[in-house]
Structure formats: C-alpha cells, structure tokens
C-alpha cells in the first residue's frame, strides 16, 4: 500500500481537548486513528463509512471476513446501530459498561457490511478510557476498531507497539501511555438462544454469570481452539457477496497474537510445568538454541533460560495479562530461538483470556 504520513498525538491533561479534536477531524474525514483503550490500542475509523473501514483492513492486512467491533460512547449510540437490544443487554450495560465487554446484537441497516463481515449482527462495546470515549464523542460516530497491530501479531499495549507495526500505514496515533488491562474485551453473543461467550477477555465468565442467569461458553473462556468455538456456535453465516463463512466475533477464526519467534506453552500442575520447562530448556540447549522464558515468580525460582521475564505470581493472572503482549514483543527483539510460556496461572477470571491468547500465540503447541 502507498505510504501515509503518520502523525503522533502525545496527549496530556493540558492538550487533551486540542488533540482529541485534531484526531476526531481525521475520523470525520474518513481517516484512521490508533487510540488507547483500557484493553489494548485500537485502530479506529468511522464505523458507518465503508471506505474508511476498508482502510483498517488494508493497514492491518486483515482478512475481510473478520468482523470489527463498533466502539460507542453511550447507550443511545448502541440503540442507533442495533436493531434488537434485549433486556439482559441493559443489565449487562449497568454492570460492565464502560468496560471490557463486547455485546453481539442484531444490527440495523445503517451499519455497512464491511464493518460486520456481512453478518446480520454487530459487535458493540463502550471502552473505559477517557481518550477513547472523548474521540468517539467528538467524532460524532461509532468507531470501528480492531487492535492496532499488523494482523496476527501480538496486540499493542503502548503507542510504540502501534508505531512499530503501522507507521506509514495509518493517519495518526494517539499516545495515551500503556493500557491498563492488556488483553482484549470479552465477547458475549446475545443473539443466540442462550447468551454465549465467544471470546474470553477482561471480564470473566464468573462475573457475567452473576449478572445473567444462563451463560454458555463456546470454548473460548476455557481457552479452547478456534474451530471448537465455531462448531459450538454453528454456522455463523456467510458474506452475501462471496459465500465466505464468517465468525461472529473477532479473534475466533485466524491465528492471532503470535510473536515472530516460535513459541510453546506449558500447562499442567505447578510441579509438572516446572519439570517440563526444565526438560525443554535442556533439549533446546543441546541443539544450541537460545531460550526466552515468560514465567510466574514461582516457576522462576526453579528454572532459568537465556532470557527470563517474570510476569506475575501464579494467583495474579491480571498481572500476566498486563505484561503478556509486551513480553512477546520484547523477547522477539532479543532474537531468541524459541519462547517458552508458563501456563501455571489461575484459569479463572482474566486468567481464561490469558490462556486463550497463549494457546493461540503458540499455535496450540
């Protein structure tokens, strides 16, 4: 694609209004702006402008049958793009919005096919970040925004990550510092007979079950594979123009979150994880390979590789999530031959999302 001059807006309290207005002008003019949310950085364009949305797909080299999430700043905007909003959706909004929850709802015709992947549904969420909410409000439109990285790479949690992937491919980046959570939103399908989690994220299935009587897990909240989740959903639909099977949610159909370096994930009991990682390190060292480790504190007390990153305690998956994608990118930069990830964290809450991302990054190896 033709190179684009990418502007960097470094936002702070003093220039907040000026920077938001400048970025919103780009959105209104049909351009692309990367911006921080509480989960990861998103690459935004006017969700109701097909030509603008297509720029997202080109910049990311993203498959066209991968639907986008429409980010909104109010319930009114949700009702403007969703045809049917069930009563339970408002209960979930009360509990979790703004926040890391995406709802799948029936769409109105105002939402173009390119935003929804040709489906009759639309994914909507209200981010819990002042920059994101300010940009949406001043732009005056829902903003379609997948993660602001090249398709398949680890999601960006800083503006520097965005710049490394997309400089020259997008119009602007708003630098709002490091994000708070570090993994994407939980996606909940409300168009199924039973509300169904399609992608685990910043809100755990346990919390959602406290708000909605019955919730089904399509495989993602346990970190299961993409195709298992799609089979659980049934046929999610076809793009009318091309007959392509499309997943209702981002993050279900394609390889995601993967570093350039080959990666393996070790899961099991704490003792078995430690033993398996030690054996793997020894085998790689016999081959002359350099090993990078992403570990819990407890595992790090017993094993050591060539490059060691300690992400969290085993009972603190939130810290693992916060450091996850940045750690993948950092180990990539060190040119290790293999990355071994410690999967001995708690699997509840955001831990399910961390394990889901690790399994995808490792290609289920």
Number of strands: 16
CATH-defined architecture of the largest domain: Alpha-Beta Complex
State the assembly state of the protein chains. single chain
- Beta-strand share of residues: 15-25%
Would you identify the CATH H-level superfamily of the largest domain? DHBP synthase
Helix count?
Answer: 13
- CATH fold call of the largest domain: DHBP synthase
Structural class: alpha/beta
CATH class of the largest domain: Alpha Beta
Shape: globular
How many separate structural domains?
2
Order of SSEs: EHEEHEHEHEHEHEHEEEHEHEHEHEHEH
Give a topology summary.
Elements (H helix, E strand, L loop, with lengths): L6 E4 L5 H13 L4 E4 L4 E6 L3 H11 L8 E3 L3 H7 E3 L2 H10 L4 E7 L5 H4 L4 E5 L4 H10 L3 E2 L14 H8 L5 E4 L10 E4 L6 E4 L5 H5 L6 E2 L8 H8 L29 E4 L3 H17 L4 E6 H4 L6 E6 L4 H17 L4 E5 L7 H12 L4
Parallel strand pairs: 1-9, 2-9, 4-7, 6-10, 11-12, 13-16, 14-15, 14-16
Antiparallel strand pairs: 2-3, 3-8, 4-8, 5-6, 6-7, 10-11
Helix pairs in contact: 1-6, 12-13
């Amino acid at each position: 694609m033709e190179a684009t001059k990418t502007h960097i807006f470094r936002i702070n309290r003093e220039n907040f209004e000026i920077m938001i207005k400048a970025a919103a002008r780009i959105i209104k003019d049909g351009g692309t702006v990367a911006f921080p949310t509480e989960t990861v950085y998103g690459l935004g364009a006017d969700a109701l402008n097909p030509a603008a949305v297509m720029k997202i797909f080109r910049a990311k080299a993203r498959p066209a049958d991968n639907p986008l999430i429409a980010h909104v700043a109010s319930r009114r905007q949700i009702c403007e793009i969703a045809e049917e909003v069930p009563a339970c959706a408002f209960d979930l909004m009360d509990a979790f919005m703004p926040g890391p929850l995406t709802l799948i709802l029936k769409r109105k015709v105002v939402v173009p096919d390119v935003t929804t992947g040709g489906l009759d549904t639309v994914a909507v969420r209200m981010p819990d970040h002042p920059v994101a909410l300010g940009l949406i409000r001043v732009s005056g439109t829902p903003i379609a925004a997948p993660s602001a990285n090249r398709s398949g790479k680890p999601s960006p949690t800083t503006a520097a990550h965005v710049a490394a992937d997309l400089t020259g491919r997008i119009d602007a980046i708003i630098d709002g510092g490091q994000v708070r959570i570090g993994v994407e939103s939980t996606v909940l399908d409300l168009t199924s007979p039973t509300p169904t989690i399609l992608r685990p994220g910043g809100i755990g299935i346990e919390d959602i079950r406290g708000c909605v009587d019955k919730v089904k897990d399509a495989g993602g909240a346990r970190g299961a594979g993409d195709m298992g989740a799609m089979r659980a959903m049934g046929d999610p639909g076809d793009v009318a123009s091309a007959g392509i099977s499309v997943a209702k949610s981002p993050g279900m159909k394609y390889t995601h979150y993967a570093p350039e370096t080959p990666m393996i994930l070790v899961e099991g009991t704490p003792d078995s994880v430690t033993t398996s990682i030690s054996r793997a390190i020894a085998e790689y060292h016999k081959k002359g390979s350099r090993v990078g480790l992403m570990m819990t504190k407890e595992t790090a007390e017993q094993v050591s590789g060539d490059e060691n990153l300690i992400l969290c305690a085993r009972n603190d998956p939130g810290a693992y999530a916060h450091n996850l994608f940045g750690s993948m990118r950092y180990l990539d930069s060190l040119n290790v031959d293999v990355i071994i990830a410690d999967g001995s964290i708690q699997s509840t809450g955001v831990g399910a999302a961390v394990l889901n991302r690790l399994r995808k990054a490792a290609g289920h190896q």
